[in-house]
């Protein structure tokens, strides 16, 4: 999809997550060791299921956010590694449960755990990882960090239930949709970023800056993900164009095309999303309507809007390599489109 | 099943949970209010699903243990109510996830949430309640109590996965089985009882006494539950005789009958539990073999053994109405058989 993206301050180079990866590499080595150790159990199925997902090539953006947001405020210690690992476990637990809830067969191009080990193992290993995440947070001993992460756990689950309630309902508004992605995606980005300044004993302004950065980065990230589902290539994504369509998921590209469409086009969307008519021909038509109404470009505009808020959230903080790396991640998230 | 049960010190009266219910009644009123409030959400499906299970008539034994074990050490304050509610939410979340894992249709005589709202809602509302439980624990602010309960959450999930791995395997030993029930049932009883002395600032001996009491009470409780499945009445239990048999669950009555059986009888158990041949005639035969080898009576003997350990755990503590009520609960748990 030839969408032209105006990038923030990095117009002339390809924005990359590499500066963040480089800066956090020694911390992430320790996170990866801790992941392996805490996903271990004498019950053999637990490391099998956990490692299947953990080793499947996610970017580990969330734990990097925790490490960077602590380092930015001069944190010295090892609680950042424990909290970063907790954040990744919360994310992994959510993915395991999501696959059961969505009845997904593929994630990042591999069979999901529920296909290999069954729904039962996915539910229970998710619960185990959540328990391990809380144990690590307790070891860190910061009640403020615990509060932020426990609240995120509730909010994420609440957002997933909300998504169930709006599922396959074409009258879902952009606001409903935003409420869902704020809870199910952005809340963990926000918590991952806020616990850094907390353990570094930053002031309230620093905490709020990173929380706002994470929240808005998460919104931009999810919006772009939803665009990619209608415009990316399976090889890049580990999923196929139109997965969301076939699952009847309502995302912003669909909401915009529906609301801007004719009576007849709206009927098409209802038959597809609510009625399950989602074969190849229907997908072709859906892509045509999404293109006709500029839904992908406008969804990207929304992502850029939140990206700008994330950028401004960090503006008052002193310049540093950490800050630059976090700013570049905003552009990277949107630049994934190309 | 005419099994004669020698009760501990209450040989001449019917042991009852009533003293514990009476002593904790004002605290439990506050627990019940907090349950309703913390299971609330703007996402309508959450209170619907949560209240379906919460209002379905469980005894709320676990939160009563928390209230009593705090009161026993002179606790004054409201953290006991928050922790008791957290414990009940952890239990409810486990039940919601268990019903999905076991594909159960009935619990306490009512359709399970997954039958009414689907597996998806059961998984996600369970996650929400777990998040709310952790938020309440964080409000209490005791890192020791958080540690005990977060550890219990991990252990419970680990035990459930272990149960999956031994499922439908007739070579499961009594030790394997004990490891499962220790994790999936007794760990939460132990944690519920240990957090009381923690918030009351009791000494290490007091904590350990209540932890041991809870752990052994939980083992006795689960063993009796497993006996009831082969000997109780559906009206008392909200489930039918033989549910475990039909689900191919391996419990101690089955383990004992299998290990004590002839070659031909062992083949029968393998066909039933591993092969799924569990119709009415097979259940009849299973009940006959369980009776032939005295498996129910011997399972009850095991329960009495753990009950005695629970009793001795409390022995060094000063006499009080609270202590008497907790001791009577041990006998009550076993006396449910009649």
UniProtKB/TrEMBL annotation, chains A, B:
It holds the Pfam family polyprenyl_synt. Gene3D superfamilies: Farnesyl Diphosphate Synthase. The keyword Transferase applies. CDD domains: Trans_IPPS_HT. GO terms for molecular function: all-trans-octaprenyl-diphosphate synthase activity. It is an enzyme of class 2 (transferase). Its EC number is 2.5.1.90. Keywords: Magnesium, Metal-binding, Transferase. The keyword Secreted does not apply. Its cofactor is Mg(2+). Belongs to the FPP/GGPP synthase family. This is Octaprenyl-diphosphate synthase.
